[in-house]
Protein backbone atom coordinates (compact mmCIF):
# COMPACT_ATOMS: atom_id res chain seq x y z
CA UNK A 1 0.00 0.00 0.00
CA UNK A 2 2.80 2.36 0.86
CA UNK A 3 4.45 1.61 -2.50
CA UNK A 4 1.20 2.22 -4.35
CA UNK A 5 0.75 5.54 -2.55
CA UNK A 6 4.28 6.53 -3.49
CA UNK A 7 3.70 5.73 -7.15
CA UNK A 8 0.44 7.70 -7.14
CA UNK A 9 2.17 10.67 -5.58
CA UNK A 10 4.90 10.55 -8.18
CA UNK A 11 2.35 10.31 -10.97
CA UNK A 12 0.44 13.25 -9.57
CA UNK A 13 3.67 15.19 -9.39
CA UNK A 14 4.36 14.52 -13.06
CA UNK A 15 0.83 15.59 -14.01
CA UNK A 16 1.17 18.77 -12.00
CA UNK A 17 4.54 19.45 -13.59
CA UNK A 18 3.06 18.92 -17.04
CA UNK A 19 0.20 21.28 -16.31
CA UNK A 20 2.63 23.91 -15.07
CA UNK A 21 4.76 23.54 -18.19
CA UNK A 22 1.67 23.82 -20.40
CA UNK A 23 0.45 26.86 -18.52
CA UNK A 24 3.83 28.51 -18.80
CA UNK A 25 3.93 27.79 -22.54
CA UNK A 26 0.57 29.49 -23.02
CA UNK A 27 1.49 32.40 -20.76
CA UNK A 28 4.79 32.96 -22.59
CA UNK A 29 3.29 32.50 -26.05
CA UNK A 30 4.56 33.42 -28.59
CA UNK A 31 8.22 32.63 -28.07
CA UNK A 32 9.09 32.03 -31.75
CA UNK A 33 7.76 32.69 -35.23
CA UNK A 34 4.42 31.21 -36.31
CA UNK A 35 4.14 29.28 -39.58
CA UNK A 36 1.11 30.18 -41.71
CA UNK A 37 0.20 27.44 -44.21
CA UNK A 38 -1.34 28.79 -47.42
CA UNK A 39 -2.69 25.67 -49.18
CA UNK A 40 -2.32 27.22 -52.63
CA UNK A 41 0.54 28.03 -54.99
CA UNK A 42 2.14 31.51 -54.97
CA UNK A 43 0.54 34.20 -57.11
CA UNK A 44 -3.18 33.59 -56.63
CA UNK A 45 -5.61 35.66 -54.59
CA UNK A 46 -5.33 33.46 -51.51
CA UNK A 47 -1.55 33.71 -51.52
CA UNK A 48 -1.58 37.48 -52.08
CA UNK A 49 -4.03 38.12 -49.28
CA UNK A 50 -2.37 35.61 -46.96
CA UNK A 51 0.94 37.41 -47.27
CA UNK A 52 -0.74 40.71 -46.43
CA UNK A 53 -2.22 39.15 -43.28
CA UNK A 54 1.17 37.70 -42.35
CA UNK A 55 2.92 41.03 -42.86
CA UNK A 56 0.44 43.30 -41.13
CA UNK A 57 -0.66 40.76 -38.52
CA UNK A 58 2.99 40.45 -37.52
CA UNK A 59 3.06 44.18 -36.82
CA UNK A 60 0.56 43.58 -34.02
CA UNK A 61 2.09 40.36 -32.68
CA UNK A 62 5.23 39.66 -30.66
CA UNK A 63 6.61 37.33 -33.34
CA UNK A 64 6.58 37.08 -37.14
CA UNK A 65 4.23 35.02 -39.29
CA UNK A 66 6.08 33.00 -41.93
CA UNK A 67 4.12 31.94 -45.02
CA UNK A 68 4.48 28.31 -46.13
CA UNK A 69 2.86 27.50 -49.50
CA UNK A 70 1.64 23.89 -49.55
CA UNK A 71 -0.60 23.44 -52.62
CA UNK A 72 -2.29 20.33 -53.92
CA UNK A 73 -5.66 18.59 -54.43
CA UNK A 74 -7.82 21.68 -54.33
CA UNK A 75 -6.11 23.23 -51.32
CA UNK A 76 -6.54 20.14 -49.14
CA UNK A 77 -2.92 18.94 -48.95
CA UNK A 78 -1.74 21.88 -46.89
CA UNK A 79 -4.76 21.77 -44.60
CA UNK A 80 -4.42 18.04 -44.02
CA UNK A 81 -0.82 18.75 -43.07
CA UNK A 82 -2.06 21.37 -40.61
CA UNK A 83 -4.26 18.79 -38.84
CA UNK A 84 -1.07 16.83 -38.09
CA UNK A 85 0.81 19.78 -36.62
CA UNK A 86 1.13 20.31 -32.86
CA UNK A 87 -1.73 22.33 -31.37
CA UNK A 88 0.71 24.73 -29.79
CA UNK A 89 -0.07 27.95 -31.66
CA UNK A 90 3.00 27.82 -33.88
CA UNK A 91 1.16 26.49 -36.91
CA UNK A 92 -1.93 28.11 -38.42
CA UNK A 93 -3.51 27.96 -41.85
CA UNK A 94 -5.74 29.78 -44.28
CA UNK A 95 -9.12 28.39 -45.34
CA UNK A 96 -12.04 29.48 -47.46
CA UNK A 97 -15.22 27.95 -48.86
CA UNK A 98 -13.19 25.66 -51.11
CA UNK A 99 -12.45 23.36 -48.17
CA UNK A 100 -16.16 22.93 -47.54
CA UNK A 101 -16.74 21.99 -51.18
CA UNK A 102 -13.82 19.53 -51.11
CA UNK A 103 -15.29 17.90 -48.01
CA UNK A 104 -18.80 17.53 -49.38
CA UNK A 105 -17.52 16.17 -52.70
CA UNK A 106 -15.52 13.51 -50.85
CA UNK A 107 -12.13 14.91 -51.82
CA UNK A 108 -11.10 15.08 -48.17
CA UNK A 109 -12.45 13.92 -44.83
CA UNK A 110 -11.45 17.14 -43.07
CA UNK A 111 -13.72 20.16 -42.87
CA UNK A 112 -13.86 23.51 -41.10
CA UNK A 113 -14.67 21.78 -37.81
CA UNK A 114 -11.34 19.90 -37.96
CA UNK A 115 -9.80 23.17 -36.75
CA UNK A 116 -10.16 25.96 -34.22
CA UNK A 117 -11.33 29.18 -35.94
CA UNK A 118 -9.17 32.24 -35.29
CA UNK A 119 -10.55 34.98 -37.52
CA UNK A 120 -11.87 35.96 -40.91
CA UNK A 121 -9.80 38.72 -42.49
CA UNK A 122 -11.07 39.49 -45.99
CA UNK A 123 -13.72 38.91 -48.61
CA UNK A 124 -13.23 38.97 -52.39
CA UNK A 125 -15.90 39.57 -55.01
CA UNK A 126 -15.73 37.17 -57.92
CA UNK A 127 -15.70 38.18 -61.57
CA UNK A 128 -16.38 36.39 -64.86
CA UNK A 129 -13.31 36.84 -67.06
CA UNK A 130 -12.98 35.67 -70.66
CA UNK A 131 -10.06 35.27 -73.03
CA UNK A 132 -9.56 38.10 -75.49
CA UNK A 133 -9.24 35.39 -78.14
CA UNK A 134 -13.03 34.90 -77.99
CA UNK A 135 -13.68 38.40 -79.32
CA UNK A 136 -16.50 38.85 -76.79
CA UNK A 137 -17.14 42.23 -75.18
CA UNK A 138 -20.31 41.78 -73.10
CA UNK A 139 -22.20 39.29 -70.97
CA UNK A 140 -24.95 39.20 -73.60
CA UNK A 141 -22.44 38.17 -76.27
CA UNK A 142 -21.00 35.56 -73.90
CA UNK A 143 -24.43 34.00 -73.38
CA UNK A 144 -25.04 33.92 -77.13
CA UNK A 145 -21.67 32.26 -77.64
CA UNK A 146 -22.38 29.71 -74.90
CA UNK A 147 -25.69 28.69 -76.42
CA UNK A 148 -23.97 27.79 -79.70
CA UNK A 149 -20.61 26.55 -78.36
CA UNK A 150 -19.27 24.78 -75.29
CA UNK A 151 -17.55 27.27 -72.99
CA UNK A 152 -14.34 25.89 -71.50
CA UNK A 153 -14.10 27.22 -67.95
CA UNK A 154 -10.94 26.69 -65.92
CA UNK A 155 -10.78 26.22 -62.17
CA UNK A 156 -10.29 23.89 -59.25
CA UNK A 157 -12.54 20.87 -59.72
CA UNK A 158 -12.24 19.98 -56.04
CA UNK A 159 -13.05 23.48 -54.82
CA UNK A 160 -15.47 26.38 -54.86
CA UNK A 161 -14.91 27.18 -58.60
CA UNK A 162 -16.81 24.00 -59.43
CA UNK A 163 -19.85 25.30 -57.56
CA UNK A 164 -19.62 28.73 -59.19
CA UNK A 165 -19.26 27.31 -62.69
CA UNK A 166 -22.26 25.02 -62.20
CA UNK A 167 -24.27 27.89 -60.72
CA UNK A 168 -23.33 30.24 -63.55
CA UNK A 169 -23.75 27.72 -66.35
CA UNK A 170 -27.24 26.83 -65.21
CA UNK A 171 -28.30 30.43 -64.62
CA UNK A 172 -27.09 31.57 -68.05
CA UNK A 173 -28.39 28.37 -69.70
CA UNK A 174 -25.19 27.84 -71.67
CA UNK A 175 -23.13 24.82 -72.71
CA UNK A 176 -20.02 24.45 -70.56
CA UNK A 177 -17.42 22.21 -69.01
CA UNK A 178 -14.75 22.69 -66.36
CA UNK A 179 -11.08 22.10 -67.10
CA UNK A 180 -9.29 21.30 -63.86
CA UNK A 181 -6.38 23.37 -62.57
CA UNK A 182 -4.60 23.36 -59.22
CA UNK A 183 -5.55 26.79 -57.93
CA UNK A 184 -6.61 30.10 -59.43
CA UNK A 185 -3.15 31.20 -60.51
CA UNK A 186 -2.86 28.19 -62.87
CA UNK A 187 -6.33 28.81 -64.30
CA UNK A 188 -5.53 32.47 -64.93
CA UNK A 189 -2.29 31.57 -66.69
CA UNK A 190 -4.26 29.18 -68.90
CA UNK A 191 -6.85 31.86 -69.63
CA UNK A 192 -4.18 34.43 -70.45
CA UNK A 193 -2.61 31.92 -72.84
CA UNK A 194 -5.92 31.22 -74.58
CA UNK A 195 -6.02 27.58 -73.47
CA UNK A 196 -9.48 28.02 -71.93
CA UNK A 197 -12.35 30.41 -72.65
CA UNK A 198 -13.35 31.69 -69.22
CA UNK A 199 -12.72 31.58 -65.48
CA UNK A 200 -14.20 32.93 -62.28
CA UNK A 201 -11.49 35.20 -60.87
CA UNK A 202 -10.85 37.90 -58.31
CA UNK A 203 -9.50 41.35 -59.04
CA UNK A 204 -6.14 40.92 -57.35
CA UNK A 205 -5.27 37.79 -59.32
CA UNK A 206 -6.44 38.84 -62.78
CA UNK A 207 -6.34 42.62 -63.15
CA UNK A 208 -2.75 42.78 -64.44
CA UNK A 209 -3.71 40.34 -67.22
CA UNK A 210 -6.74 42.46 -68.08
CA UNK A 211 -4.57 45.56 -68.28
CA UNK A 212 -2.09 43.66 -70.46
CA UNK A 213 -4.89 42.80 -72.90
CA UNK A 214 -4.99 39.04 -72.32
CA UNK A 215 -8.51 38.85 -70.89
CA UNK A 216 -11.62 40.89 -70.11
CA UNK A 217 -13.91 41.28 -67.11
CA UNK A 218 -17.50 40.73 -68.28
CA UNK A 219 -19.63 40.67 -65.12
CA UNK A 220 -19.19 40.73 -61.35
CA UNK A 221 -20.95 38.68 -58.68
CA UNK A 222 -22.02 41.59 -56.47
CA UNK A 223 -25.50 42.99 -55.95
CA UNK A 224 -24.38 46.42 -57.21
CA UNK A 225 -21.53 47.73 -59.35
CA UNK A 226 -18.36 48.48 -57.44
CA UNK A 227 -16.37 51.70 -57.50
CA UNK A 228 -13.18 49.94 -58.54
CA UNK A 229 -14.80 48.54 -61.72
CA UNK A 230 -17.59 50.97 -62.59
CA UNK A 231 -17.90 49.73 -66.19
CA UNK A 232 -18.31 46.07 -65.26
CA UNK A 233 -22.01 45.19 -64.87
CA UNK A 234 -23.39 42.82 -62.25
CA UNK A 235 -25.11 39.57 -63.15
CA UNK A 236 -28.09 40.83 -61.16
CA UNK A 237 -28.61 43.96 -63.25
CA UNK A 238 -28.36 41.78 -66.35
CA UNK A 239 -31.28 39.70 -65.10
CA UNK A 240 -29.45 36.73 -63.56
CA UNK A 241 -29.80 35.79 -59.90
CA UNK A 242 -26.08 35.16 -59.43
CA UNK A 243 -23.81 36.44 -56.66
CA UNK A 244 -20.33 35.09 -55.93
CA UNK A 245 -17.88 35.95 -53.19
CA UNK A 246 -15.15 34.21 -51.22
CA UNK A 247 -14.20 34.72 -47.59
CA UNK A 248 -10.66 34.00 -46.40
CA UNK A 249 -9.93 33.22 -42.78
CA UNK A 250 -7.42 31.54 -40.49
CA UNK A 251 -7.56 28.47 -38.27
CA UNK A 252 -5.37 26.50 -35.88
CA UNK A 253 -5.12 22.75 -35.23
CA UNK A 254 -7.96 21.29 -33.18
CA UNK A 255 -7.25 21.46 -29.46
CA UNK A 256 -5.22 24.67 -29.55
CA UNK A 257 -5.58 26.44 -26.20
CA UNK A 258 -8.33 29.12 -26.22
CA UNK A 259 -5.89 31.61 -24.70
CA UNK A 260 -3.59 31.17 -27.69
CA UNK A 261 -6.51 31.52 -30.10
CA UNK A 262 -7.44 34.74 -28.34
CA UNK A 263 -3.91 36.15 -28.66
CA UNK A 264 -3.88 35.39 -32.38
CA UNK A 265 -7.38 36.79 -32.90
CA UNK A 266 -6.47 39.98 -31.05
CA UNK A 267 -3.46 40.52 -33.31
CA UNK A 268 -5.57 39.96 -36.41
CA UNK A 269 -8.32 42.26 -35.18
CA UNK A 270 -5.82 45.02 -34.52
CA UNK A 271 -4.39 44.49 -38.00
CA UNK A 272 -7.88 44.63 -39.53
CA UNK A 273 -8.32 48.11 -38.04
CA UNK A 274 -4.88 49.29 -39.12
CA UNK A 275 -5.15 51.86 -41.95
CA UNK A 276 -2.02 50.41 -43.58
CA UNK A 277 -3.59 46.93 -43.79
CA UNK A 278 -6.93 48.30 -44.97
CA UNK A 279 -5.22 50.23 -47.76
CA UNK A 280 -3.07 47.25 -48.76
CA UNK A 281 -6.09 44.95 -48.96
CA UNK A 282 -8.13 47.43 -50.97
CA UNK A 283 -5.20 47.98 -53.34
CA UNK A 284 -5.42 44.35 -54.40
CA UNK A 285 -9.16 44.58 -54.96
CA UNK A 286 -10.40 43.02 -51.74
CA UNK A 287 -12.27 44.27 -48.67
CA UNK A 288 -11.52 43.77 -45.00
CA UNK A 289 -14.07 41.43 -43.42
CA UNK A 290 -13.01 40.71 -39.85
CA UNK A 291 -14.83 38.16 -37.71
CA UNK A 292 -13.53 36.90 -34.38
CA UNK A 293 -13.41 33.22 -33.37
CA UNK A 294 -17.06 32.69 -32.43
CA UNK A 295 -18.54 34.83 -35.19
CA UNK A 296 -16.28 33.15 -37.73
CA UNK A 297 -17.27 29.70 -36.47
CA UNK A 298 -20.95 30.61 -36.93
CA UNK A 299 -20.21 31.91 -40.43
CA UNK A 300 -18.47 28.67 -41.40
CA UNK A 301 -21.35 26.60 -40.01
CA UNK A 302 -23.82 28.59 -42.12
CA UNK A 303 -21.70 28.31 -45.28
CA UNK A 304 -21.24 24.59 -44.69
CA UNK A 305 -25.01 24.04 -44.69
CA UNK A 306 -25.45 26.07 -47.87
CA UNK A 307 -22.61 24.35 -49.74
CA UNK A 308 -23.79 20.91 -48.62
CA UNK A 309 -27.18 21.57 -50.19
CA UNK A 310 -25.65 22.96 -53.41
CA UNK A 311 -23.34 19.96 -53.82
CA UNK A 312 -26.25 17.56 -53.31
CA UNK A 313 -28.13 19.35 -56.09
CA UNK A 314 -25.12 18.94 -58.41
CA UNK A 315 -24.92 15.17 -57.91
Automatic annotation (TrEMBL):
Family under the similarity heading: Belongs to the UPF0065 (bug) family.
Annotated CDD domains: PBP2_Bug_TTT
Name the record gives this protein: Tripartite tricarboxylate transporter substrate binding protein
Coiled-coil segments on the chain, per record: none
Source superkingdom: Bacteria
Pfam families xref list: TctC (PF03401)
Amino acid sequence: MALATGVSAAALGLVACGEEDSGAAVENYPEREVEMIIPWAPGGGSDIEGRLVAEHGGNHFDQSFVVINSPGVGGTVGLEELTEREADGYSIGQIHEGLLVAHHTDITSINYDSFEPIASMSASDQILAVSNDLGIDSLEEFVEYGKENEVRFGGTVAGIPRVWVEQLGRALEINYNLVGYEGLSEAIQALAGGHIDAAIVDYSSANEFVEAGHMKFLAIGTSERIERLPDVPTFVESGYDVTMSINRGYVAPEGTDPAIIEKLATAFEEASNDPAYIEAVQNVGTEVDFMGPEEYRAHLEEQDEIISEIVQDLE
